[in-house]
Amino acid sequence: MRTTIACERCRAQFPEFGFLHPDDLEYRQDELSVVQKLRLLVIVAVSHRYSESYTADINNKNILFIASEVQKRVTSGPSVALIQTFLILSLCNWGDGDGFNAWMHCGIATRMAQGLLSTGFASCGKRETLSELEKRTLWTCFKMDRLLSCGKRRQAMFSDGDMHFSLPVNDTQFLFGQSPQAAPIDDSLKVYGSDDHLVLLIQGLRIWSRVHTWIAEGGRRQPGMTEPEQCPFNETSDWSKMKQDLIKWRQSQDALMKYPATKVSVHAQRGQAERFGYINLVYYVSLLFLCREFIPFSPVDEVKPRGPIEPPLLKVRGPDSFWLQNVFDLYDAASQISSLLSDLEHVGCPLRTPFSGLCAFSSTLWSIYGAAFPNFMGFTPSQTSDADSQAERTMAVYIQDAMGDLQLSPASEPHLMHRSLLTRPETVTSASGVWITLSSGRKILDGCAGAAVAIIGHGNTEVRDAMVEQMSSVSYVHTMAYTTSSAEDLANYILDGEPFDLTRAYFVGSGSEAMDSAMKLARQYHVENGQPQRTKFVSRRQAYHGNTIGAMSMGSFVARRAPYEGAILLDNVSYVSPAYEYRVRKDEETEQEYAQRLVDELEAEFQAVGPDTIMAFVAETVGGATAGCISPPAGYFEGVGKVCRKYGILLILDEVMCGVGRCGTFFAFEQDGDVRPDIVTTGKGLGGGYAPIAATLVHRKIIETLKKGTASFNHGHTYQAHPVSCAAALAIQKIIRRDNLVTRAATLGARLHKSLVEIFQDLEFVGNIRGRGLFWGIEFVKDKKTKTPFDTKIRFGVKVQERAFQLGLAVYPGSGTADGKKGDHVIVSPPLTITEDEMDELLVLLKKAYDDVAAEFS
Q: What stretch or stretches form a coiled coil here (predicted)?
């Protein structure tokens, strides 16, 4: 049992162990030969690394003992079991960062395999009829040999000429005995599928082997390589043929196999990050080695690339476009290697092998080269800085590793607790305007401003300077005893003229805190107003009001509530229908009739609960994360306000996501007639992402009531009205007003709405488009006629978001749209500073993302 578990664990962790078969390991131990027992021991030792009881010292001693015993059997003659044992040992050494012993043990296995190939395996004497087990063992020798060789010091031993037999069959056929379909190497993808890592890696390594051998034998300095027919821009040259084969191999791969279009985290979730990493490293390092061969070591005063300037010189210069493309491909390959290695680190799958070390060194060398010769490379100052940082980042990891500062155990994980415990999010290195730059160098168009947060875009220097100035004078005070000018000025600025009789602003750190503050204010108001029996709230379904216990209780995001339902969430909240025209309005209803029906439903709920027991009705003016920008019908909030006033119930409007100008007016409710909320919460756009801040804005009547009672608000936070956050928010609000960004949101929003309808409305899986200003949601459905949502397992909206991200666009996905459980949407909510050209690019990328996902279901 233990050996079977060990075998399964090894196969799961290492694609290199593809030759392991359960049937080959399920003999009774007294029936095994010594070599077979040693093979079992090394399998158990390797699998033990992934058990909770793993102890490095003991395991290392076991590996050393097995290595010693196996080496004694070398002179007894080769066998498949002995070859496999040396290969597993090699992988073990590889994982420990012991490149020399890994290469040595792989070399022993390779020489044995070559010997058996020349004399015939035990099963037969002809290589064309090799057993599947033998075939897989040979291919593993070839693959390991290529990954471990690093030039003349550690040369490759297995030549392409030795590999004339077909590829192994896929795992299902191998493990369960289905009839194999032999296929030549060049046609293998048709047999094994585009995601077969073994096939792809072997194909790539064959090309890398040719490139590596050509370079090791002198590359462009070989005899005859300066002749016109061998110049790299000649399509029949050796160099060009290798590059053509490399590109052909790349093009044959499925999109999911290509980095950076597909993130490492996608494969990490499947336990395939290492395989994905090696396939892409083979491609990029092969491209880098090919391109670097014709780059001058020291271009001196060269302005444009024009081929080698050190002997031997080419006899034909070639077109300038070729040399420019060569430089571009070289640096792109170096950049992608650096980013890929970094991303593998982030998902907890660091590569520590001679091959990855060679890739890291080569990437770093040419990043340093780019920083040293920016004119030659055609770099901007920003690209020069990025190249320098990239080199420093890549080598820092490998230098630390060489010094023994890093633990290479699989348990090496980040200490920051991310939302997912399996994958890390992308690392952002810089952001400016509507563009975000990742550590990989990729640029992302921020089409959702985070979560409708970055209202004036990223990297605004005015806001930065205001924050620095505030920190230079007062960085923090406790509001129980002190106030600051930045907090006072911000409150006075946004409530100048007391709009809608909102007279006080209470500043906190997040929208959730703002909602909790509003709930407490409502309760305290009624207590001090002589109505302590009011203990209940009414909210709406498909609503989201925050993530703290109080705010989550007010919302109805079913998936987020589920773990806490019946345990810690409040039970004094009831819910009515949302103003969700697409799903709630009846076909025969006019807009006025629909609005009145919703108001009547609310009044009926008040009566059912007991109107004198209700503190407040809470609603998002324009629905946000859960419902995807649903907008109320005309007259709805006017009617809601009248019903609330009729029963003395407070009206709390949540504008954390939709407020501060995003919908085309400063308050979103300004577009809904004569609406007078008692409390308004704002947040995301208030601080624009530059600092955490939100606000609870309070009506005059509440303040006057509290003044007559305790004359205080029984609530407080350590970072309440934080001076630096208030300074940032004040600078942002001044920019919004000065640059007329609220009006701009209305104007650009009309253009965005028109474009969304023209491009998306008639598409097969688009059910509804709704929103205001620069706050729009697209709801996806499985069936347009019945409005049936997709099954939750399909995650259609998330797939659109993920594909958009691969293409370079960020949008905000949502689920549970239809009923709190089912339904998908994405939100488009770019910074109010987005240009029309950037908006057009956003639409193109979003349409492409939708098309790619929809193609799976059409």
A: none
How far the first Cα of the chain sits from its last, in Å, is: 46
The two three-digit tokens of residue 121, written as one number: 């395996």
Q: Is 548 exposed, middle or buried (0-12, 13-18, 19+ CB in 10 A)?
A: middle
Cα separation of 291 and 274, whole Å? 25
Packing angle, helices 56-71 and 80-95, rounded to 10: 140
Q: How far is CA 784 from CA 762, 768, 780, 830, in A?
A: 9, 9, 9, 27
Whole-angstrom distance, CA of residue 387 vs CA of residue 368: 7
20's tokens: 């392991």
Three-state SS for 728? Answer: helix
304/326 Cα distance (integer angstroms):
11
**Residue 250, amino acid:** R
Amino acid at 735: I
| Tens of pLDDT, residues 765-794 | 999 999 999 999 999 999 999 999 999 889
- Does residue 818 or residue 97 have the better pLDDT? 818
Q: What are phi and psi of 188, to 5 degrees?
A: -70, -35
Model confidence at 388, in pLDDT bands (50, 70, 90)?
low
In the block, which residue shows the tokens 């599947």?
Answer: 132
Phi/psi at 776 (nearest 5 deg)?
A: -130, 140
Crossing angle of helices 354-372 and 273-292, rounded to 10°:
50
What is the signed CA dihedral for 248, 254, 257, 261, rounded to 10 degrees? 90
Q: What is the pLDDT of residue 150?
A: 58
User: What CA–CA distance (Å, rounded) separates 536 from 574?
Assistant: 8
Compute the 3-state secondary structure of the chain and give helix, strand, coil in percent, each to the nearest 5.
Answer: 55, 10, 40
- 657-690: b (≥16 Cβ within 10 Å) or e: bbbbbbbbbbbbbebbeebbbbbbbbbbbbbbbb
Query: Is pLDDT above 90 for 308?
Result: no
Retrieve residue 614's tokens: 């209700």
| CA gap 556, 539 in Å, rounded | 8
Secondary structure (DSSP) of 616-644: EEEEESS--TTTTS--PPTTHHHHHHHHH
Concatenated DSSP letters for 320-347? Answer: HHHHHHHHHHHHHHHHHHHHHHHHHHHT
Written as six digits, the tokens of 441 are 């160098």
Amino acid at position 633, single letter = P
Q: Report the amino acid identity of residue 541.
A: R
- Kindly report, residue by residue over 191-229, the tens digit of the pLDDT: 333 345 767 777 888 888 888 778 877 888 888 888 889
> Measured over all CA atoms, what is the biggest interatomic distance in the chain, rounded to whole angstroms?
102
DSSP class of 821: S
Q: What is the mean pLDDT of the chain?
A: 83
The string of pLDDT tens digits covering residues 483-496 is: 999 999 999 999 99
Give the number of C-alpha atoms closer than 13 A to the C-alpha of residue 246, restricted to the C-beta side: 28
- Reading the block at residue 635, the tokens are 């007259």
Tally of helices (H runs) and strands (E runs) in the chain: 31, 15
Q: What percent of the chain has pLDDT over 70?
A: 79
Task: Tell me what the mean pLDDT of segment 527-547 comes to.
Answer: 96
Q: What angle do CA 581, 582, 584 make, to 5 degrees?
A: 60
Please state whether the predicted TM-score (pTM) of the whole model is above 0.85.
no
Question: What is the structure's pLDDT at 189?
Answer: 33
**Phi/psi at 402 (5° precision):** -65, -30
Strand order from edge to edge, sheet including 775-780: 766-772, 775-780, 824-828, 812-815
How far apart CA 61 and CA 620 sit, in angstroms, is 64
